[in-house]
Each structure stands twice: as structure tokens, then as C-alpha cells.
């Protein structure tokens, strides 16, 4: 496959791009950064420009047989519509055989007014209108979000796993690697065109369940602490800026309010079975991470 990967310089798209390259496929992506400032992505070809540049998007798709789209963390409806429209036109013009859209979130059945949901719903509609065979993945929450500066130190040094979801919320946590495997299957597997898959992890876990899984992996007691969305937003704003932080946190505010408590739960493995993938369990993922990098007391950590 010759795959145009939108978002390959980010975490989710980067995992997809690396898997494609590792399996011998050609990858091309967009970047607005100068060549020397781009993240390392061995084996991938870069096209200069962004999603608002119709010419750059067209060059991204030249010669592509397949495409994967993960939208940037932008939640302004008109910007997202413009990005999606540019992608749809370019994919159609290039004769792309299959396009996989990672919505990066589950979507409530009814409109919510929450930009984190509704801009993704709109992008999906625009891409479907391109006429290019489409597969949509709607993952829940990424395990990799937990390997971060806002909760890593508390987890490693204090045994506290904090995240802005209610403790009782059932979540089918998925890793970036699990997402990449699902995207690859959506690109290559017969019989999935036109499908929408609520892909999730191997099990649905409450906060308490997740803490137990991490405790098993780390060999120590771990307790789950629901993080207030407002505090999460302040931390996120320091890394990504206030607009992006507000957009991302809107999803967590929606869930913290008790709206649609099953939105992030598993689907009894139906999507994984349809795609022929087997996502790792949370304890397996946790056991593989170098948690000691977050410790404020590295001398106390095992070598």
C-alpha cells in the first residue's frame, strides 16, 4: 500500500505510520514544521504544508492507494469542515481505494453541543460524502494518556492513578499500539468497508478495576482517584494551550456529568473480532512501560 497518513507527527497517527513502515508499506504525511524540526519517522516521506492548504493536501494524496486520517486537536467547526473537505476532495481525485478515519473518540447517538464530539461527527459525514470507501474507528480512551507528566509521578511515587473520569465509568481502554493494529486491519481486511467500529481494549474496566490492573503490573497497591476536569484542563493548557485544552476537556466534562455512562464501554469484542485484532490487556500494557522516568525518587525504583 501507498498510504497518506494524516496526523503521523502525533501520537496516534505516529503509531499507525510506524506500523505501516515496519510492514513494508510506503507512508507519506504532512508537516508544517521545517525539515530539521520534524519528529523522527524513519521511512516516511514528508509533504510541506497543513490541512488548510488544498494544494498541500493534494500533493499528500498523489499516488496514494489508501489513506488514514486522524484529525488534529482542533475543535472549531469551520476549520474542521475545511480540513475534512480538502481531504475528501483529494482522496476522491487520487482514486484512493480505502480511507480509514480515526474519530479519536466514541460519539453519542444524539447531538450534544460538545465540540470534541460534534466536529468529529461532522468530519466523518464529510469524508463519507467523498464517495471513497470508508472505514470509521471510534476508540474509547487511550492507555497511553496515563503515561504522562500529570499523573505519572503520583502513580509511581504514591500509588495514585488519577484521571478525569468517574470511578464507576466503564471504559474499554486501548493503547496506541492497539489502535494502530486496528487501523491496519481496517485498511487491509476484506469485508469491513463502510463499517463503523467502536474498537476498544480487551476488557471493560471501572477506575477500581484499572487501578487493580496497574497494581498487578507494578507489584504494589494502586488506588484510582477521579480528577476534576477543571484541574485536568489547567494542566493540559500548559502543554497544548488553552483552546485545545478546553476542547479536549469538554468530552470529560460531559462524562463527569453522568451523560451517557456507557459511551466508552466495550462492545463485547465485536469490533475486535470483525477486524481480526486482539488488543492487549491493561495490565500487559502497564507492565511494559518505563514508569521510573516519572519518579521524583528514582533511587527508590528498581533498576
UniProtKB/TrEMBL annotation:
Gene3D superfamilies: NAD(P)-binding Rossmann-like Domain
Pfam families in alphabetical order: NmrA (PF05368)
Residues of the NmrA-like domain: 2-234
Superkingdom of the organism of origin: Bacteria
Record-given protein name: NmrA family protein
Organism, as annotated: Streptomyces laurentii
Amino acid at each position: 500500500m501507498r498510504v497518506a497518513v494524516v496526523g503521523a507527527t502525533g501520537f496516534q497517527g505516529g503509531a499507525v505510520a510506524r506500523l505501516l513502515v515496519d510492514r513494508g508499506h510506503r507512508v507519506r504525511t504532512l508537516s508544517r514544521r521545517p525539515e530539521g524540526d520534524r519528529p523522527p519517522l524513519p521511512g516516511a516521506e514528508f509533504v510541506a504544508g497543513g490541512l488548510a492548504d488544498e494544494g498541500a493536501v493534494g500533493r499528500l494524496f498523489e499516488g496514494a492507494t489508501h489513506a488514514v486520517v486522524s484529525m488534529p486537536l482542533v475543535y472549531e467547526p469551520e476549520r474542521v469542515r475545511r480540513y475534512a473537505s480538502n481531504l475528501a476532495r483529494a482522496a476522491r481525485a487520487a482514486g484512493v481505494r480505502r480511507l480509514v478515519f480515526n474519530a479519536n473518540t466514541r460519539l453519542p447517538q444524539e447531538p450534544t453541543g460538545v465540540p470534541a464530539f460534534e466536529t468529529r461527527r461532522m468530519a466523518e459525514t464529510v469524508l463519507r460524502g467523498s464517495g471513497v470507501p470508508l472505514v470509521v474507528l471510534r476508540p474509547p480512551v487511550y492507555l497511553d494518556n496515563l503515561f504522562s507528566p500529570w499523573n505519572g509521578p503520583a502513580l509511581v511515587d504514591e500509588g495514585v492513578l488519577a484521571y478525569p473520569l468517574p470511578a464507576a465509568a466503564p471504559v474499554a481502554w486501548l493503547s496506541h499500539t492497539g489502535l494502530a493494529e486496528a487501523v491496519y486491519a481496517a485498511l487491509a481486511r476484506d469485508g469491513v468497508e463502510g463499517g463503523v467500529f467502536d474498537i476498544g481494549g480487551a476488557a471493560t474496566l471501572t477506575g477500581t478495576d484499572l487501578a487493580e490492573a496497574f497494581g498487578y503490573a507494578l507489584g504494589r497497591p494502586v488506588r484510582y482517584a477521579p480528577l476534576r476536569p477543571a484541574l485536568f484542563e489547567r494542566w493540559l493548557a500548559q502543554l497544548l494551550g488553552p483552546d485545545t485544552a478546553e476542547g479536549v476537556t469538554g468530552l470529560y466534562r460531559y462524562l463527569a456529568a453522568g451523560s451517557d455512562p456507557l459511551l466508552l464501554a466495550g462492545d463485547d469484542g465485536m469490533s475486535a473480532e470483525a477486524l481480526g485484532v486482539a488488543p492487549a490487556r491493561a495490565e500487559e500494557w502497564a507492565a511494559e512501560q518505563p514508569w521510573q522516568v516519572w519518579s521524583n525518587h528514582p533511587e527508590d525504583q528498581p533498576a
